[in-house]
Amino acid sequence: MAIGHLLRDFCDSVPQQTSENGQSLTTRQYDLGYQAGWDEALSHAEKTNLMIGAQLARNLQDLTFTFAEARQATISEFDEVVELLVEKILPKIAHETLGLQIIDQLRESIFNEEHPQIQVVASPQDAPTIESVLESVPGVSTQVQIQADLPAGAVLWRMNEAEHQVDVPKLIQGIEKTLRGYVYEAKGEQKHA
To answer: The pTM is what?
Structure first.
């Protein structure tokens, strides 16, 4: 049972209003609402873009700061590694391989001579090591002299009239200077960054 016929219909009684240019007010209101929606969407998009840009700038700044911290930590650690390398490891390796370094330098000269005569001048610390290494080379006559004022790791050797020198402390100083120079420059660059 429908009661629609009992109720009054107010839709037909509202007159159709028009604006000055002939458009109906309903169409004009629709256009205004449509434009307001676009304006709000554009405003929201602009605010969102500004917010994303600000967040990106903060993230990049955090990354830059984190990179700088990581670089500083790495340089500090490298500085400690250089200390350990120069003070502990290189001198030990140099002392253990001193005889082999001399053999490497002598190899060409030894094999070009029939009965080479080699005279080696070494520090008291290095003489036993050098004697044992040179004794293992067949067909070579060696004479090892000890010179007390020669620093450990510095060895002079003569064969015929040619004189040569192995100076491990000087080599270690060169390596140390190079590594410390790198660390110094890296720290300087970091201060300016």
So the answer is: 0.48
